[in-house]
Hints:
By secondary structure, this protein is mainly beta. It has a domain of about 100 residues. The strands form two sheets. It has a 16-stranded parallel sheet that branches. Strands 2-4-6-8-11-14-17-20-23-26 form a ten-stranded parallel sheet, with no helix packed on it. The radius of gyration is 20 Å and the shape is globular. The N terminus is likely disordered. Keywords: Signal. This is Polymer-forming cytoskeletal protein.
Amino acid sequence: MRLTLMSALIALSLSGAVLASEDVSKVNGTASVEAGQHAGNVSTVNGSVRIGDKATVEKASTVNGSVELGEGATANVVKTVNGGVSLNENARVAGDLSNVNGRVKLAKGADVKGHLENVNGDITLDHAHVGSGIETVNSDITIGDSSKVEGGILVKKPNMGWHSENNRPPVITIGPHAVVTGTMTFEREVVLNVSDSATVGKIEGATPKKFSGANP
């Protein structure tokens, strides 16, 4: 009996080793994972990262290029410096999503469990969810219809290290039936539009402009 149990444990251990997810790494060009596949860290320096539908990866990251998670795909962490980030329908980031220069778009059912951070580039949620707050410096933010952000929103004051030729105030829009829990804090001038059907928490540093209908 003991030999049988030990044999089973050894078999499971070997099976786990065989099934261990491998990294996908490039310097130039696209790093990709096919639909339904599993991988470890998927990264490139000069190029994009593409994670196929319902694929699962540990980390999706690049320096100069975009990151796209296909429909129903999952990553623990998503990170880029210069390039947009797109989460297609029902894509999921179990941890944080961070970007510096580029748009961030979450499609219907997309979910970032952790913190979403960006510096320059629009942030748009469409029936999507962020679990631990949104932080930016210069981004326009649209929390679209029926989206939810837990942990509030922080728009930081630019410092000497962040140069932007566009000095207009960021536009923050909380759309119809959207929910923002926690505090929305604005350390710089913004235009804050809040739907009359949205639910928001405490607001610091801005006066909301109420609107009806789909858009301000």
